[in-house]
């Protein structure tokens, strides 16, 4: 299974925010859309990624004033990205090794979507379930 397969079953909506908006705006948007990351775009181009983990780091570093800071002060400016042709197993390894929970998927300069570790885990479970079904069918019809 490849990442493009995951993107086909996900919503096409990509939640984004401007780098000059406040972190409070970002948190409100994450909650409203029930997402764990926002693509940071300036003039339609991805300039970074803001995740729940980035917000938590901001709270730790800045205390209660974190909400008034700009998104650009907390975002990751060079997130690890994936390709739609990457395998799920490869991406799972990259996300695990780098401890990232959200991965922008790019094709050239075009942002196709964001996948979460949850999306990858669900895809792996679905693949394992399918393989188990095939094996059970094979064993059931084993020639004697």
From TrEMBL:
UniProt keyword terms in alphabetical order: CBS domain
Pfam families in alphabetical order: CBS
Chain ranges of the CBS domain: 2-66, 75-130
Leader peptide range in chain numbering: none
Keyword Protein biosynthesis attached: no
InterPro entries assigned to the protein according to its UniProt record, in alphabetical order: CBS_dom (IPR000644), CBS_dom_sf (IPR046342), Diverse_CBS-Domain (IPR051257)
Domain of life: Bacteria
PROSITE patterns attached to this UniProt entry: CBS (PS51371)
Stated name of the protein: CBS domain-containing protein
Biological source species: Sulfuriferula nivalis
């Amino acid at each position: 299974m490849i990442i493009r397969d995951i993107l086909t079953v996900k919503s096409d909506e990509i939640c984004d925010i401007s780098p000059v908006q406040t972190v409070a705006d970002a948190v409100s948007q994450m909650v409203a859309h029930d997402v764990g990351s926002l693509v940071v775009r300036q003039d339609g181009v991805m300039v970074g990624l803001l995740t729940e983990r980035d917000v938590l780091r901001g709270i730790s570093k800045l205390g209660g004033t974190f909400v008034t800071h700009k998104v650009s002060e907390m975002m990751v400016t060079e997130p690890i990205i994936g390709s739609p042709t990457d395998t799920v197993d490869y991406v799972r390894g990259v996300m695990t090794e780098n401890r990232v929970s959200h991965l922008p998927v790019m094709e050239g300069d075009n942002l196709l979507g964001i996948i979460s570790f949850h999306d990858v885990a669900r895809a792996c479970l679905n693949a394992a379930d399918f393989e188990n079904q095939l094996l059970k069918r094979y064993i059931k019809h084993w020639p004697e």
